Structure formats: C-alpha cells, structure tokens
Amino acid sequence: MADAVIFDLDGVIVDSEPVWEEVRRAYVAAHGGTWQADTQRRLMGMSTGEWSHYLSGELGVDRTPEQVATEVVEEMTRRYAERVPLIDGADQVVRRVAGRWPLGLASSSPTRLIAAALAATGLTDVFGATLSTEETALGKPAPDVYLAVAERLGVDPARCVAVEDSSNGVRSAAAAGMAVVAVPHGAYPLDPDAERLAALVLESIGELTPEVVARLG
Questions:
Q1: Cα–Cα distance between 41 and 30 in angstroms, integer?
Q2: From 12, 32, 159, 201, which residue has the greatest number of CB atoms within 10 Å?
Q3: What is the mean pLDDT of residues 136-141?
Q4: Nearest CA-CA partner of 150 in 179, 125, 123, 121
Q5: pTM of the model
Q6: How far is CA 152 from CA 95, 160, 208, in A?
C-alpha cells in the first residue's frame, strides 16, 4: 500500500498548459524571439529559471532571463486572477484521494502561481507539502522536486504514487522511484519512453479513484 500520493499541478489539476503556451508564445513574438516546433514540449517541466534562460537564450528574446521570468509570471498571475482553469472534477478527485493518503504537490509553476491556483480551487489545506521547482536545483525531468516533497512528507519515495501529465513529469517521478499514474493532456501526448515509464495511463483525472491508487501501492 502506498504511503502518500504526490500530484503535479499543471495539466493534472488545472488546465494551465495551454495558457502557459499562449502567454509565452505571445511574449516570445513580442520580444524578437522565434518559437520553435518543439518549444512547448521542451518547456513542459522546466523550472522558472530554466525556461526563462531558454526563452532569453535559445529563442532569442531581447530580455534578460530575470526580466523574462518576472514579466511572464506577471501575465500568468493576471490570467489566474481572471480565471483559474480547473480541470473538471479534479478538485473532487484530489479530495477523495486525500481521504485515504497524505498528499504532496510537486509543481514546475512558480510558488506564487501555485498559491493562487490552490486558493482558487479551495485545495490549499489538502496538501501536506507543496513545492515549486523554483526551490530545487533542477526542474523536471530531474527527480529533485519529487524527492524533496517525499522528504517533507516523511515518506519513502518508493512508497509514493505520483500523478503526472507530461513526459518530463513522468520521467521526473519515475526517476525518484515512484509508481507513476499518467493522465496525458490531449494536446500534448506522452513520448513513447515516458509512456513506458508510467505504471498506468488514464484518459482523464476522473478515472483516478482511491481503488486505482491502492492497486499501485
């Protein structure tokens, strides 16, 4: 039986990946950069420091990484103030799972956006440990954030079930030794190697029941 369940935020609880893509695409275009065919796939899972350097360096945006991070996150915060795009039923799924296991949150979003999303969805107090990759040495696909959340919960990573949507997220949780439930976003399918790493692939977050988690633990 699992000792804890650790959720990703973007793409699992909130449908924010399309918002991130829209905001960063517009920002790159407005600041002299060039969006590449594989940019969104590469960005998914990067920490704030990693993607701001990527936009400033590889995509040719005429702003420093620090300016990129500040300005993009400000726009995302403005969007969240208008509406946090909760995935249908995700909050209820999280609450049902929380009835059986301690929960953690391992997110690539900046800390202020995590706080805004959890407050808007009423889930702030459901998670025993919440961590942004802003606070770890490396973002996903490195295991740092999952290992750190498990440590904060006081559980063995190998006794955790992780819930992820992106290829880099699945790679991150698997590298931490966790059993991974993948719930891929329709617009961003998993890479074949990531799909093989997942213990289970679901079509929607609504399929994640306590019974499903218990079978993995």
A1: 21
A2: 12
A3: 96
A4: 179
A5: 0.92
A6: 20, 13, 24
